[in-house]
Amino acid sequence: MQLASKRIHKGRVIDLDVDTVRFPDGSTGQLEMIRHPGAAAVLPFASDPHGADPTILFIKQYRYAVNGPLIEIPAGRLNPGEDPKDCARRELLEEVGVKAGRIERLTTIWTTPGFTDEKIHLFWASDLTTGKHAREPDEFIEVMPKPLSEALTLVRDGGISDAKTALSILFVAGFTLGH
Amino acid sequence: MQLASKRIHKGRVIDLDVDTVRFPDGSTGQLEMIRHPGAAAVLPFASDPHGADPTILFIKQYRYAVNGPLIEIPAGRLNPGEDPKDCARRELLEEVGVKAGRIERLTTIWTTPGFTDEKIHLFWASDLTTGKHAREPDEFIEVMPKPLSEALTLVRDGGISDAKTALSILFVAGFTLGH
Protein backbone atom coordinates (compact mmCIF):
# COMPACT_ATOMS: atom_id res chain seq x y z
CA MET A 1 0.00 0.00 0.00
CA GLN A 2 1.30 3.44 -0.95
CA LEU A 3 1.94 5.75 2.01
CA ALA A 4 3.74 8.50 0.10
CA SER A 5 5.18 9.11 -3.36
CA LYS A 6 7.92 11.47 -4.39
CA ARG A 7 8.41 12.31 -8.07
CA ILE A 8 12.16 12.25 -8.70
CA HIS A 9 12.04 12.72 -12.47
CA LYS A 10 9.31 13.50 -14.97
CA GLY A 11 10.58 12.27 -18.29
CA ARG A 12 9.67 11.94 -21.94
CA VAL A 13 9.01 8.19 -21.85
CA ILE A 14 8.96 7.32 -18.15
CA ASP A 15 8.71 8.96 -14.75
CA LEU A 16 10.65 7.90 -11.67
CA ASP A 17 9.00 7.95 -8.24
CA VAL A 18 10.39 6.90 -4.90
CA ASP A 19 7.42 5.61 -2.92
CA THR A 20 7.05 4.87 0.75
CA VAL A 21 5.16 1.62 0.95
CA ARG A 22 3.47 -0.53 3.59
CA PHE A 23 4.20 -4.20 2.82
CA PRO A 24 1.78 -7.10 3.44
CA ASP A 25 3.36 -7.82 6.86
CA GLY A 26 2.78 -4.26 8.06
CA SER A 27 6.39 -3.13 7.73
CA THR A 28 7.26 -0.06 5.66
CA GLY A 29 10.02 0.67 3.18
CA GLN A 30 10.97 2.67 0.14
CA LEU A 31 10.68 1.46 -3.44
CA GLU A 32 11.84 2.99 -6.71
CA MET A 33 9.06 2.79 -9.24
CA ILE A 34 9.28 3.63 -12.93
CA ARG A 35 5.84 4.81 -14.03
CA HIS A 36 4.99 3.97 -17.61
CA PRO A 37 1.69 4.52 -19.46
CA GLY A 38 1.66 0.96 -20.84
CA ALA A 39 2.22 -0.22 -24.38
CA ALA A 40 0.85 -2.38 -27.16
CA ALA A 41 2.73 -4.71 -29.48
CA VAL A 42 1.51 -6.68 -32.48
CA LEU A 43 2.81 -9.72 -34.34
CA PRO A 44 1.81 -9.15 -37.98
CA PHE A 45 1.24 -12.11 -40.33
CA ALA A 46 1.95 -11.23 -43.96
CA SER A 47 0.38 -14.51 -45.11
CA ASP A 48 -2.50 -16.69 -43.90
CA PRO A 49 -1.57 -17.41 -40.25
CA HIS A 50 -3.16 -20.85 -40.50
CA GLY A 51 -1.28 -21.71 -43.68
CA ALA A 52 1.98 -23.70 -43.72
CA ASP A 53 4.82 -21.74 -42.07
CA PRO A 54 3.26 -18.26 -42.25
CA THR A 55 5.41 -15.16 -42.77
CA ILE A 56 5.76 -12.66 -39.93
CA LEU A 57 6.81 -9.04 -40.43
CA PHE A 58 9.47 -8.23 -37.86
CA ILE A 59 11.33 -4.98 -37.48
CA LYS A 60 15.05 -4.61 -36.92
CA GLN A 61 15.54 -1.61 -34.71
CA TYR A 62 18.54 0.18 -33.25
CA ARG A 63 18.27 0.14 -29.45
CA TYR A 64 20.52 2.40 -27.47
CA ALA A 65 20.01 0.26 -24.34
CA VAL A 66 21.42 -2.73 -26.22
CA ASN A 67 24.06 -0.75 -28.10
CA GLY A 68 22.92 -2.31 -31.35
CA PRO A 69 19.93 -3.66 -33.27
CA LEU A 70 17.19 -5.95 -31.96
CA ILE A 71 14.66 -7.97 -33.92
CA GLU A 72 11.25 -7.02 -32.55
CA ILE A 73 7.57 -6.84 -33.35
CA PRO A 74 6.05 -3.38 -33.84
CA ALA A 75 5.19 -1.76 -30.51
CA GLY A 76 4.75 1.54 -28.81
CA ARG A 77 3.40 3.46 -25.86
CA LEU A 78 -0.29 4.02 -25.31
CA ASN A 79 -1.44 7.58 -25.81
CA PRO A 80 -3.57 8.93 -22.94
CA GLY A 81 -6.92 7.14 -23.01
CA GLU A 82 -5.99 5.09 -26.08
CA ASP A 83 -7.45 1.61 -26.48
CA PRO A 84 -4.55 -0.89 -26.65
CA LYS A 85 -5.88 -2.42 -29.88
CA ASP A 86 -5.99 1.02 -31.52
CA CYS A 87 -2.42 1.61 -30.32
CA ALA A 88 -1.34 -1.70 -31.88
CA ARG A 89 -2.97 -0.71 -35.20
CA ARG A 90 -1.33 2.71 -35.05
CA GLU A 91 2.15 1.33 -34.34
CA LEU A 92 1.77 -1.29 -37.08
CA LEU A 93 1.01 1.47 -39.56
CA GLU A 94 3.70 3.83 -38.26
CA GLU A 95 6.51 1.30 -38.05
CA VAL A 96 5.72 -1.22 -40.80
CA GLY A 97 3.46 0.78 -43.06
CA VAL A 98 0.56 -1.67 -43.12
CA LYS A 99 -3.06 -1.66 -41.99
CA ALA A 100 -4.53 -4.73 -40.31
CA GLY A 101 -7.80 -6.15 -41.65
CA ARG A 102 -7.90 -8.40 -38.60
CA ILE A 103 -6.32 -7.92 -35.18
CA GLU A 104 -6.73 -10.25 -32.20
CA ARG A 105 -5.53 -10.16 -28.62
CA LEU A 106 -2.89 -12.60 -27.38
CA THR A 107 -2.36 -11.63 -23.74
CA THR A 108 -1.01 -8.86 -21.50
CA ILE A 109 2.38 -9.04 -19.78
CA TRP A 110 4.21 -7.18 -17.03
CA THR A 111 7.63 -6.51 -18.51
CA THR A 112 9.66 -6.33 -15.29
CA PRO A 113 7.44 -5.83 -12.24
CA GLY A 114 10.30 -5.41 -9.77
CA PHE A 115 10.74 -1.78 -10.73
CA THR A 116 8.11 -0.67 -13.26
CA ASP A 117 4.34 -0.74 -13.69
CA GLU A 118 4.73 -1.10 -17.46
CA LYS A 119 2.47 -3.66 -19.06
CA ILE A 120 2.35 -4.55 -22.72
CA HIS A 121 -0.83 -5.67 -24.46
CA LEU A 122 0.08 -8.24 -27.13
CA PHE A 123 -1.86 -8.81 -30.35
CA TRP A 124 -1.52 -10.59 -33.64
CA ALA A 125 -2.70 -9.16 -36.94
CA SER A 126 -3.44 -10.46 -40.42
CA ASP A 127 -5.15 -9.43 -43.67
CA LEU A 128 -2.60 -6.65 -44.09
CA THR A 129 -2.87 -3.89 -46.68
CA THR A 130 -0.32 -1.22 -47.52
CA GLY A 131 -0.62 2.08 -45.67
CA LYS A 132 1.65 5.02 -45.02
CA HIS A 133 4.72 4.94 -42.75
CA ALA A 134 4.99 7.65 -40.11
CA ARG A 135 8.04 6.90 -38.01
CA GLU A 136 9.13 9.00 -35.11
CA PRO A 137 12.41 10.86 -35.65
CA ASP A 138 14.41 8.66 -33.25
CA GLU A 139 13.17 5.35 -34.68
CA PHE A 140 15.57 3.51 -37.03
CA ILE A 141 13.62 0.62 -38.37
CA GLU A 142 14.01 -1.96 -41.11
CA VAL A 143 11.12 -4.32 -41.90
CA MET A 144 12.27 -7.94 -41.89
CA PRO A 145 9.88 -10.71 -43.02
CA LYS A 146 10.62 -14.18 -41.65
CA PRO A 147 8.75 -17.48 -41.70
CA LEU A 148 7.45 -18.65 -38.32
CA SER A 149 9.79 -21.66 -38.40
CA GLU A 150 12.83 -19.38 -38.66
CA ALA A 151 11.45 -17.09 -35.94
CA LEU A 152 11.14 -20.08 -33.61
CA THR A 153 14.73 -21.09 -34.33
CA LEU A 154 15.87 -17.53 -33.59
CA VAL A 155 14.04 -17.56 -30.25
CA ARG A 156 15.57 -20.91 -29.35
CA ASP A 157 19.10 -19.85 -30.29
CA GLY A 158 18.97 -16.31 -28.85
CA GLY A 159 18.84 -14.36 -32.13
CA ILE A 160 15.51 -12.99 -30.97
CA SER A 161 16.05 -11.78 -27.41
CA ASP A 162 13.45 -9.07 -26.93
CA ALA A 163 11.04 -10.44 -24.32
CA LYS A 164 7.72 -9.29 -25.84
CA THR A 165 8.80 -10.56 -29.28
CA ALA A 166 10.02 -13.98 -28.13
CA LEU A 167 6.92 -14.45 -26.01
CA SER A 168 4.54 -13.46 -28.83
CA ILE A 169 6.18 -15.92 -31.23
CA LEU A 170 5.98 -18.80 -28.74
CA PHE A 171 2.42 -17.80 -27.82
CA VAL A 172 1.06 -17.83 -31.36
CA ALA A 173 2.95 -21.03 -32.20
CA GLY A 174 1.77 -22.83 -29.07
CA PHE A 175 -1.76 -21.54 -28.62
CA THR A 176 -3.14 -19.48 -31.50
CA LEU A 177 -1.95 -21.72 -34.32
CA GLY A 178 -1.49 -24.88 -32.30
CA HIS A 179 1.73 -25.89 -34.05
CA MET B 1 26.50 6.34 -29.53
CA GLN B 2 26.70 8.02 -26.14
CA LEU B 3 27.83 11.66 -26.22
CA ALA B 4 27.07 12.49 -22.59
CA SER B 5 25.37 10.93 -19.61
CA LYS B 6 23.83 12.63 -16.60
CA ARG B 7 23.01 10.60 -13.49
CA ILE B 8 19.59 11.79 -12.31
CA HIS B 9 19.08 9.24 -9.55
CA LYS B 10 21.25 6.58 -7.95
CA GLY B 11 18.88 4.09 -6.40
CA ARG B 12 18.74 0.86 -4.46
CA VAL B 13 17.65 -1.30 -7.41
CA ILE B 14 18.08 0.93 -10.46
CA ASP B 15 19.79 4.14 -11.53
CA LEU B 16 18.31 6.71 -13.89
CA ASP B 17 20.50 8.48 -16.43
CA VAL B 18 19.53 11.00 -19.07
CA ASP B 19 21.95 10.45 -21.93
CA THR B 20 22.73 12.59 -24.93
CA VAL B 21 22.94 10.20 -27.84
CA ARG B 22 24.01 10.24 -31.48
CA PHE B 23 21.57 8.12 -33.51
CA PRO B 24 22.50 5.98 -36.55
CA ASP B 25 21.52 8.81 -38.95
CA GLY B 26 23.88 11.27 -37.24
CA SER B 27 21.17 13.22 -35.42
CA THR B 28 21.37 13.70 -31.68
CA GLY B 29 18.79 13.52 -28.93
CA GLN B 30 18.21 12.76 -25.28
CA LEU B 31 17.14 9.40 -23.90
CA GLU B 32 16.13 8.33 -20.41
CA MET B 33 17.90 5.11 -19.52
CA ILE B 34 17.29 2.96 -16.47
CA ARG B 35 20.58 1.22 -15.64
CA HIS B 36 20.17 -2.20 -14.10
CA PRO B 37 22.89 -4.74 -13.22
CA GLY B 38 21.01 -7.60 -14.92
CA ALA B 39 19.24 -10.54 -13.35
CA ALA B 40 18.87 -14.30 -13.42
CA ALA B 41 15.68 -16.36 -13.21
CA VAL B 42 15.21 -20.12 -12.95
CA LEU B 43 12.32 -22.46 -13.69
CA PRO B 44 12.67 -25.28 -11.12
CA PHE B 45 11.33 -28.76 -11.87
CA ALA B 46 10.32 -30.64 -8.71
CA SER B 47 9.96 -33.88 -10.68
CA ASP B 48 11.73 -35.42 -13.68
CA PRO B 49 11.40 -32.72 -16.38
CA HIS B 50 11.18 -35.39 -19.06
CA GLY B 51 8.45 -37.32 -17.21
CA ALA B 52 4.75 -36.89 -17.93
CA ASP B 53 3.51 -33.41 -16.98
CA PRO B 54 6.39 -32.45 -14.66
CA THR B 55 5.81 -30.26 -11.60
CA ILE B 56 7.25 -26.73 -11.55
CA LEU B 57 7.86 -24.75 -8.35
CA PHE B 58 6.46 -21.27 -8.87
CA ILE B 59 6.38 -18.48 -6.35
CA LYS B 60 3.44 -16.22 -5.65
CA GLN B 61 4.84 -12.84 -4.78
CA TYR B 62 3.36 -9.51 -3.78
CA ARG B 63 4.37 -6.87 -6.32
CA TYR B 64 3.86 -3.24 -5.49
CA ALA B 65 4.02 -2.30 -9.19
CA VAL B 66 1.06 -4.59 -9.87
CA ASN B 67 -0.75 -3.74 -6.61
CA GLY B 68 -1.17 -7.44 -5.90
CA PRO B 69 0.41 -10.86 -6.28
CA LEU B 70 2.06 -12.33 -9.37
CA ILE B 71 2.92 -15.94 -10.12
CA GLU B 72 6.60 -15.97 -11.06
CA ILE B 73 9.69 -18.12 -11.19
CA PRO B 74 12.48 -17.36 -8.68
CA ALA B 75 14.64 -14.48 -9.86
CA GLY B 76 16.88 -11.72 -8.65
CA ARG B 77 19.54 -9.18 -9.46
CA LEU B 78 23.11 -10.15 -10.20
CA ASN B 79 25.59 -9.19 -7.53
CA PRO B 80 28.67 -7.35 -8.86
CA GLY B 81 30.76 -9.83 -10.85
CA GLU B 82 28.39 -12.71 -10.15
CA ASP B 83 28.00 -15.47 -12.73
CA PRO B 84 24.33 -15.58 -13.83
CA LYS B 85 24.11 -19.32 -13.13
CA ASP B 86 25.39 -18.79 -9.59
CA CYS B 87 22.82 -16.01 -9.17
CA ALA B 88 20.05 -18.37 -10.33
CA ARG B 89 21.20 -21.02 -7.80
CA ARG B 90 21.33 -18.41 -5.05
CA GLU B 91 17.85 -17.04 -5.78
CA LEU B 92 16.42 -20.55 -5.97
CA LEU B 93 17.78 -21.28 -2.51
CA GLU B 94 16.78 -17.91 -1.07
CA GLU B 95 13.27 -17.80 -2.45
CA VAL B 96 12.22 -21.45 -2.67
CA GLY B 97 14.60 -23.08 -0.22
CA VAL B 98 16.00 -25.69 -2.61
CA LYS B 99 19.39 -26.52 -4.09
CA ALA B 100 19.65 -27.52 -7.75
CA GLY B 101 21.56 -30.68 -8.60
CA ARG B 102 21.28 -29.68 -12.25
CA ILE B 103 20.88 -26.24 -13.79
CA GLU B 104 20.83 -25.44 -17.51
CA ARG B 105 20.61 -22.24 -19.52
CA LEU B 106 17.47 -21.43 -21.53
CA THR B 107 18.25 -18.03 -23.06
CA THR B 108 18.80 -14.36 -22.22
CA ILE B 109 16.14 -11.69 -22.74
CA TRP B 110 15.97 -7.90 -22.77
CA THR B 111 12.98 -7.09 -20.58
CA THR B 112 11.99 -3.75 -22.11
CA PRO B 113 14.80 -2.26 -24.21
CA GLY B 114 13.02 1.04 -24.89
CA PHE B 115 14.07 2.43 -21.53
CA THR B 116 16.31 -0.02 -19.64
CA ASP B 117 19.45 -2.06 -20.22
CA GLU B 118 18.14 -4.82 -17.95
CA LYS B 119 18.63 -8.33 -19.27
CA ILE B 120 17.54 -11.52 -17.56
CA HIS B 121 19.43 -14.79 -17.94
CA LEU B 122 16.91 -17.65 -17.88
CA PHE B 123 17.64 -21.18 -16.62
CA TRP B 124 15.84 -24.34 -15.70
CA ALA B 125 16.81 -26.53 -12.77
CA SER B 126 16.12 -30.07 -11.61
CA ASP B 127 17.35 -32.68 -9.11
CA LEU B 128 16.31 -30.40 -6.26
CA THR B 129 17.21 -31.00 -2.62
CA THR B 130 16.01 -29.08 0.42
CA GLY B 131 18.16 -26.15 1.54
CA LYS B 132 17.65 -23.15 3.76
CA HIS B 133 15.44 -20.15 2.88
CA ALA B 134 16.97 -16.71 3.22
CA ARG B 135 14.42 -14.20 1.97
CA GLU B 136 15.05 -10.50 1.87
CA PRO B 137 12.91 -8.47 4.28
CA ASP B 138 10.71 -6.97 1.56
CA GLU B 139 10.00 -10.27 -0.21
CA PHE B 140 6.60 -11.86 0.47
CA ILE B 141 6.71 -15.20 -1.19
CA GLU B 142 4.62 -18.37 -1.21
CA VAL B 143 5.92 -21.45 -3.05
CA MET B 144 3.30 -22.79 -5.44
CA PRO B 145 3.89 -26.13 -7.22
CA LYS B 146 1.98 -26.60 -10.49
CA PRO B 147 2.09 -29.18 -13.27
CA LEU B 148 3.43 -27.90 -16.61
CA SER B 149 0.02 -28.47 -18.23
CA GLU B 150 -1.63 -26.11 -15.75
CA ALA B 151 1.18 -23.56 -16.14
CA LEU B 152 0.61 -23.55 -19.90
CA THR B 153 -3.12 -22.99 -19.40
CA LEU B 154 -2.35 -20.10 -17.04
CA VAL B 155 -0.06 -18.50 -19.63
CA ARG B 156 -2.70 -18.90 -22.33
CA ASP B 157 -5.48 -17.44 -20.17
CA GLY B 158 -3.48 -14.62 -18.58
CA GLY B 159 -3.19 -16.05 -15.05
CA ILE B 160 0.57 -16.00 -15.51
CA SER B 161 1.40 -12.54 -16.83
CA ASP B 162 4.99 -11.95 -15.72
CA ALA B 163 7.01 -11.85 -18.94
CA LYS B 164 10.09 -13.85 -17.83
CA THR B 165 7.84 -16.52 -16.29
CA ALA B 166 5.49 -16.91 -19.26
CA LEU B 167 8.44 -16.98 -21.65
CA SER B 168 10.33 -19.60 -19.61
CA ILE B 169 7.28 -21.90 -19.49
CA LEU B 170 6.71 -21.67 -23.24
CA PHE B 171 10.44 -22.05 -23.89
CA VAL B 172 10.85 -25.28 -21.89
CA ALA B 173 7.58 -26.68 -23.29
CA GLY B 174 8.49 -25.86 -26.88
CA PHE B 175 12.22 -26.44 -26.99
CA THR B 176 13.71 -28.12 -23.91
CA LEU B 177 11.06 -30.79 -23.46
CA GLY B 178 9.67 -30.73 -26.98
CA HIS B 179 6.03 -31.07 -25.88
Describe the secondary-structure layout.
Two copies of one chain form a homodimer.
Chain A: E1 2-10, E2 15-22, E3 28-35, E4 39-44, E5 55-63, E6 68-72, E7 75-77, H1 84-96, E8 98-110, E9 119-130, E10 141-147, H2 148-157, H3 163-176
Helix pairs in contact in A: 2-3
Briefly summarize what is shown.
Two copies of one chain form a homodimer. Helix content of chain A is 21%, strand content 45%. The first copy, chain A, is α+β, with helices and mostly antiparallel strands.
Features:
Nucleoside Triphosphate Pyrophosphohydrolase, 3 helices, alpha+beta, 45% strand, three-stranded antiparallel sheet, 2 domains, four-stranded mixed sheet, 179 residues, homodimer, 21% helix
